[in-house]
Amino acid sequence: MNLVARRLIVMASAALTLGLSGSAWAFHSGGVAECEGCHTMHNSKDGNWMGPKYRMGTAIGSDQIEGVNTWLLQGSDASSTCLNCHQHEGDTGPSSYHVSTPDAEMPAGIPPKQRTPGGDFGWLKKDYTWVNRNSNFASEGERHGHNIVAADYGYMADTELTQAPGGQYPAANLSCISCHDPHPKYRYDVDFNLIERTLPIKAAGSYNGTTNAPTAWGAVGVYRILGGVGYVPKSLGPTGNSVAFNAKPPFAIAPSTYNQSEATNQVRVAYGSGMSEWCGNCHYNIHANVGTPAPGALIHPAGTNALLSTYGEADIYNAYVKSGNLTGSEATAYSSLVPFEEGLTASVANKATLNAHATNAAGLTGNSYLSVSPSANVMCLSCHRAHASGNDAMTRWNQENEFLTVADANGNVAWADASNSSQQGQAQGRTTAELAAAVNDRPVTTFAPYQRNLCNKCHAKD
User: Alpha helix (H) ranges present in 165-231?
Assistant: First the structure.
């Protein structure tokens, strides 16, 4: 049996396992996965060379296949290798660990299919234009998220931003492994100390449940196998030294099934602490408590110092239901469209707390848990999705218009109609299906007629 056939059997078996739970434990399991799932051991595939022939670091042949990598990967670059598994043709809806929708399955007017908390990279390929107030507007796909380079799947580098906003990471080298460490060295021991390779990783640390708990002999991986202090992809070469990470991975727990429509139940990722500080590895001039703010920057507080209790935002968050309605309570306040960190650092007790809070069945008005800690704070992911979204700046809601919804003559709330000339500002070239998908299918009735921007979930200025 050749390598390709064996790899297909491995992937098929993993898919069957993963399809039952919607998680990605079976392959990555919190650490380095099966080598042959990502690499080809002898630089060949289907009998063809995948790159130049090397012996002791010296090229001995000139029959390199154009555009193919030299890292013995199963794809032509790192992200393409990841998408060999994390994109799948034929999904009828959100499916397990998939984070990208094939081009052919999201033609004009049809949204991407995946609904992970991080979003679907397919939004990067959705360009929109519209006319409002006699002016032409555009929302280009590359403004919708992190522009990973995955040549096999049609993802290209950002053409406008050559470096990470607020940092120096080169856009031409942005890939899945810019954030996720495929060979992770950091892990949590039984006391939830962040350690390096002194214990094997027995399970993923990203999910709730007793099987994902560290023991005296086996550690668990960090959240989403994100890179830690000193991490930089080897593919960057010597230039990577200037962009090596200086913040440890964030502490967070997700439900084991996290990729689903939120038409009836929202997905709550229980964020503990450190997310904004970790984002600051690449965007260190973006927020006030990491690095030195860029001159003239208008910076929204984000991180452990950006407490929701400072100016009463926690009380507003609990009370805010929708525009014009401040009758809510803590028991019904949580919204996955505006998540927050609980301010809980890594520990055994805090892991147990976050385990209980991470759920995919919270309903559309799940417990907010703000009372768990007085140190709950706003973070980068309170407003942004990590991969991509249906909006500019990869925000969780559209910030380019004062209204998210419209209303009919009787005051019934509705999504805007892109074909209605009077609703172009709200629709912004998107169909009703795309507007709904951008909020993970949350029913429009959960918003007010002429719902204002969701910055108001914390600020209530509407």
Answer: none
**3 state DSSP class of 237:** helix
The pTM assigned to this predicted structure is 0.90
Q: Tell me whether residue 386 is exposed, middle or buried, using C-beta atoms within 10 angstroms of its C-beta: 0 to 12, 13 to 18, 19 or more.
A: buried
Angstrom CA distances, 411 to 135, 300, 405, stand at 28, 34, 11
Would you tell me how many other CB atoms lie within 10 Å of the CB of residue 410? Answer: 6
Question: Token pair of 183, please?
Answer: 């060979």
User: Which is it for strands 201-203 and 219-221: parallel, antiparallel or unpaired?
Assistant: parallel
The C-alpha atoms of residue 120 and residue 351 are separated, in whole angstroms, by: 28
Cα separation values, 41 from 3, 237, 264, 296, 323, Å: 8, 22, 46, 51, 57
Neighbours of 191 (CB within 10 A): 11
Give all strands (DSSP E) within 98-257, no chain letters: 128-132, 135-139, 187-188, 194-195, 201-203, 219-221, 251-253
Burial class (CB in 10 A: 0-12, 13-18, 19+), 180: middle
* H or E segment to which residue 3 belongs: helix 3-21
Q: For residue 269, which amino acid is it?
A: V
Burial of residue 37 (number of CB atoms within 10 Å: 0-12, 13-18, 19+): middle
Q: How far apart are CA 161 and CA 345, in angstroms?
A: 34
Distance set, CA 27 to CA 17, 33, 408 (Å): 9, 6, 49
* DSSP-derived secondary structure for 4-58: HHHHHHHHHHHHHHHHHHS--TTTTTTS---HHHHB-TTSEETTEESS--EETTE
Residue for token pair 């959100």: 94
For residue 265, give the 3-state DSSP assignment: coil
Q: Cβ atoms within 10 A of the Cβ of 462, count?
A: 18
Instruction: Please provide residue 36's backbone torsions phi and psi, each rounded to the nearest 5 degrees.
Output: -75, -10
Could you tell me if 385 and 398 are in contact, meaning their C-beta atoms sit under 8 angstroms apart? no
Predicted confidence pLDDT, tens digits, the chain (462 residues): 343 344 443 444 444 333 333 444 468 999 999 998 898 877 666 666 665 544 334 444 444 444 445 688 888 899 999 999 999 999 999 999 999 999 999 999 999 999 999 999 999 999 999 998 889 999 999 999 999 999 999 999 999 999 999 899 999 999 999 999 999 999 999 999 999 999 999 999 999 887 889 999 999 999 999 999 999 998 888 888 899 999 999 999 999 999 999 999 999 999 999 999 999 999 988 875 555 555 555 578 899 989 999 889 999 999 999 999 999 998 889 999 999 999 999 999 999 999 999 999 988 887 777 765 678 999 999 999 999 999 999 999 999 999 999 999 899 999 999 999 999 999 999 999 999 999 999 999 999 999 999 999 999 999
